[in-house]
Amino acid sequence: MSFVEPAFIQFLAVVFTIWWALARWRRVQNAFLAAVSLAFYGWVHVWLVGLLLYSTTLNFVLGLLVERRPAQRRLWLGLALVLNLGTLSFFKYFNFFQDSVVGALQTLGFQAHATTLQIFLPVGLSFYTFHAMAYVIDVGRNQFKARTDPVDFLLFIGLFPQLVAGPIARAHMLLPQVETPRKFDAEKVGSGVGLALWGAFKKVVIADTMARYVNILYAHPNPSWAMIWAAALGFTIQVLADFSGYTDMARGVARMLGFELLDNFNHPYLASSPADFWGRWHISFSTWLRDYVYLPSCFSPWLDKWLKPPWVSELSDFAVTTRALFITMFLSGLWHGSTANYLVWGLYYAVIGTFWAWVAAKIPRKVKKQRDWRPVLVPLMFVHTLVGMMIFREPSLTRLVSWFLRSPFDSTPDQLAVAGGMLMVCAAGAAPLLLALAWETRVAPRLEATAWKLPVTTTAWAVAAVAIASFYQSTVNDFVYFQF
Predict the structure, then answer these.
(1) Sign (positive/negative) of CA torsion 212, 216, 250, 260?
(2) For 280-336, how does the pLDDT look when each residue is reduced to its tens digit (9 = 90+)?
(3) pLDDT at residue 269, as a whole number
(4) Which of 300, 348, 394, 408: CA 20 to 30 A from 322?
């Protein structure tokens, strides 16, 4: 069930009413929401519930074993990594490995054919697997106590607003909220409604509208240079509105039920460096990679032994962090998919991240402090982001290479007109996002303690609802990150 389906509004209305009617009985309330979350996840494919219960049971038991048998902690942590990543890899990469093996055998002259078995990636698997793994690792690091209540743990893993595409929940943030009684707060409910409406607006009005034009240009057999870059700009706006729209809906719905989820986006296109970008984009995922991949890679004696030139006695700090960055971004690309463009995308960010860090280290502090360099750095970083989004969107490396080698002067008048039309669509899509930024930074703080807050806020809700209803189509597109 998608957040932007009419059925979801009916579903949420029923859940909201019963949920708060059970507010006096926390355990009953949690059991109800856990059951509702299972029903939500199995709405289209019932067998997905079994996969979620398997992951929940596995990590619940392993968390207890890690804590209660400290002498065997490394064994249980290793088992947790193998079983979680093994399950994820099977569903995510089975078809890729099958096709690769068949292709290799055919190249060698053997008669080989792919089986009729086609494994599809269960929606949400990557997200709840990562936050279940984080729980077990945190228990193993003595940062968190293993939980003994299976219902609370099931709700922590399967809470339906964040189940399908995040934000990736962390135990220290969400589990205490699950275990604490909640009181109805009209102000928080209103805030959640407004946040969910804004998320739906970004998805239905901006992202899905942009997607129609972007898909046409990307499907063109021979687009001009101007068309290519206009389409890349369109996709850059589309994917931000789509994914941050999902996050806002997830956070808004969770807030209506008394939970607070992590804000996954912080104006990422205002980033002034690659490191700043990853501190603003898909924050729950980037911080997960930082805590469980990047930092361990910086301090790993195993990597020092096996991933170090034999003629070097000790790597510099810059070399160590660069190695960790390449490992992290390679795994980030692999997480997104098995096609080559995702791996290139990950390595691209590793390269530019290393380059920016190297340049920053060479610039004297006096020069850095002389003026505010953000007006220069933010547009430059946005160009890098635009290139990254082009790599992310196009699976064919052959097409990508041809696009980057294309002359900017090869466009016909008709092609320039098409590119110009796409840029107008981009301007229309970016305008609400810029207005929202102005609202957040300029208008909302001034309204907070005035009598104008309620009428202005409810008017904004009404405008958003009318726009959503006007732009909504029965064949609404899936969220972009559902495929990951």
Answers:
(1) negative
(2) 999 999 999 999 999 999 888 888 777 777 666 777 888 888 999 999 999 998 888
(3) 95
(4) 394
Which pTM value belongs to this model? 0.87
Rounded average pLDDT over 5-18: 90
Cα–Cα distance measured from residue 247 to residue 266, given in angstroms and rounded to the nearest whole number: 12
Instruction: Please pick, among 131, 282, 336, 384, the residue that the annotation labels catalytic.
Output: 336
Asked whether residue 117 carries a pLDDT value surpassing 80, the answer given is no
Confidence of residue 97 (pLDDT cuts 50, 70, 90): low
DSSP assignments along 128-149, one per residue: HHHHHHHHHHHHHTTSSPPP--
Nearest CA to 411 out of 166, 208, 158, 229 is that of 229
SS3 percent helix, strand, coil of the chain, rounded to 5, is 75, 0, 25
Q: Measure the CA–CA gap between 433 and 430, rounded to whole angstroms.
A: 5
Can 45 be counted among the known catalytic residues? no
* E strand or H helix that includes residue 157: helix 150-158
Q: Compute CA distances 8 → 4, 14, 48, 318, 466, whole Å.
A: 7, 10, 19, 49, 17
Distance CA 382, CA 21 (A): 48
- What distance in Å separates the CA atoms of residue 460 and residue 477, rounded to the nearest whole number? 25
- DSSP summary character for residue 121: P
User: For the chain, which residues make up each domain, given as ranges?
Assistant: 24-181, 188-483
Q: How far apart are CA 9 and CA 407, in angstroms?
A: 49
